[in-house]
Design a protein that fits this description.
The protein has 360 residues and is an alpha/beta fold. It is built from 9 helices and 14 strands. Bound molecules: pyridoxal-5'-phosphate (PLP). The site of pyridoxal-5'-phosphate (PLP) has 12 residues, from helix 3.
Length: 360
């Protein structure tokens, strides 16, 4: 069987070793006689799985003790509401940076709860770059500043952390968390849907500084209240136990491979190889400002759009799956999260070179 490489943006490929381990443990987790899926979330077995996952994540990211780590449901999309519900804390406005499709969704949702000041936007540049820090019009009365460090659809990624003074910085890190080391202390809140770089869909990780939680909008349901989740160890109700367990295995896998410094080195090399081919062969191009090209999501277009279907079908035959770009932008997109092996990148770049030789 030819190996298959899955370039899906999410749910995305998981490390083969993690899946093999989950298979080994599937029917009988550590002699418990049960699958993790069947365990009480309050039993000692699952409590140890949950605790260990949190400890590993805290170690990987160096999360200080005054931050809560929450394992929630509802996807990053629920965070678009939970963030304003919990972080407005008596204020009526919030700053948002608009760098693409996911920023826009976060902005649209926040507008239900507060007045949104779009402090900077690259929409006039078709989201191919990031507005320079000195152009941002931050509102001192804002409750927080929200941005999207990696735009999964546009393939645009910050290589710097915004300086927001006393305003808490909030980041949607769904498609970039754990791809490189991170100084968590620069943030008030970080959130990420799991299905890109953490584990399977159904789990959302929130890292929040504890002094920011507890003062919610009056109508906030307890399921949307960070404090209620923190008070209950993310077990206010039944958590997504199996996804939480798999996330723990992924954290362990990252640790065994040298942690986030090692991840960053590999990710930079993988992305570099792919952009090198896109730039070298006239047949391919990337619209994104080279400084802000994402390490995780690599959109590219063919010089002749009428060859898109053939490209995708031949790629599929070569075991290179899910390269079709997002329906809103077209073209191609290779999502190359932590779990994409370097061999997947070599196979893709060789395929691209051959396709251009035959059809370019
Ligand atoms: C995938 C993604 C989302 C949406 O996540 P869901 O878990 O489907 O709600 C939001 N923001 C970013 C940056 C994403 O990549």
């Amino acid at each position: 069987m030819t190996p298959v490489y899955n370039f899906s943006a999410g749910p995305a490929t998981l490390p083969g070793q993690v899946l093999a381990r989950a298979r080994e443990e599937l029917l009988d987790w550590h002699g418990s006689g049960m699958s993790v899926m069947e365990m009480s979330h309050r039993g000692k077995e699952f409590m140890s799985i949950a605790q260990q996952a949190e400890t590993r994540l805290r170690e990987l990211l160096g999360i200080p003790a005054d931050y809560h780590v929450l394992f929630l449901q509802g996807g990053a999309t629920s965070q678009f509401s939970m963030v304003p519900m919990n972080l407005l804390r008596g204020r009526r406005q919030a700053d948002y940076i608009n760098t693409g499709a996911w920023s826009k969704k976060a902005i649209a949702e926040a507008r239900r709860y507060c007045s949104v000041n779009v402090a900077a936007s690259s929409e006039d540049r078709n989201f191919t770059t990031i507005p320079p820090a000195d152009s941002w019009q931050l509102d001192p009365a804002a409750a927080y500043v929200h941005y999207t460090p990696n735009e999964t659809i546009g393939g645009l990624e910050f290589d710097w952390i915004p300086e927001t003074g006393t305003l808490p910085l909030v980041a949607d890190m769904s498609s970039t968390i754990l791809s490189r080391p991170l100084d968590v202390t620069r943030f008030g809140l970080i959130y990420a849907g799991a299905q890109k770089n953490i584990g399977p869909a159904g789990l959302t990780v929130v890292i929040v500084r504890s002094d920011l939680v507890g003062d919610v909008l009056d109508f906030t349901p307890s399921m949307f209240n960070y404090q209620s989740h923190a008070d209950n160890g993310s077990m206010l109700n039944t958590p997504p136990t199996f996804a939480w367990y798999l996330a723990g295995l992924v954290f362990e896998w990252i640790g065994e491979r040298g942690g986030l410094v090692a991840m960053a080195e590999v990710n930079q090399r993988k992305a570099g190889k792919l952009y090198e081919v896109i730039d070298r062969l006239d047949f391919y191009s990337s619209p994104v400002d080279p400084r802000y090209r994402s390490w995780m999501n690599v959109p590219f277009i063919l010089a002749d759009e009428s060859l898109d279907t053939e490209f995708l079908s031949q790629a599929g035959d070569a075991g290179l799956l899910n390269l079709k770009g997002h329906r809103s932008v077209g073209g191609m997109r290779a999502s190359i999260y932590n779990a994409m092996p370097e061999a997947g990148i070599s196979t893709l770049t060789e395929f691209m070179a051959e396709f251009e030789r035959n059809r370019g």
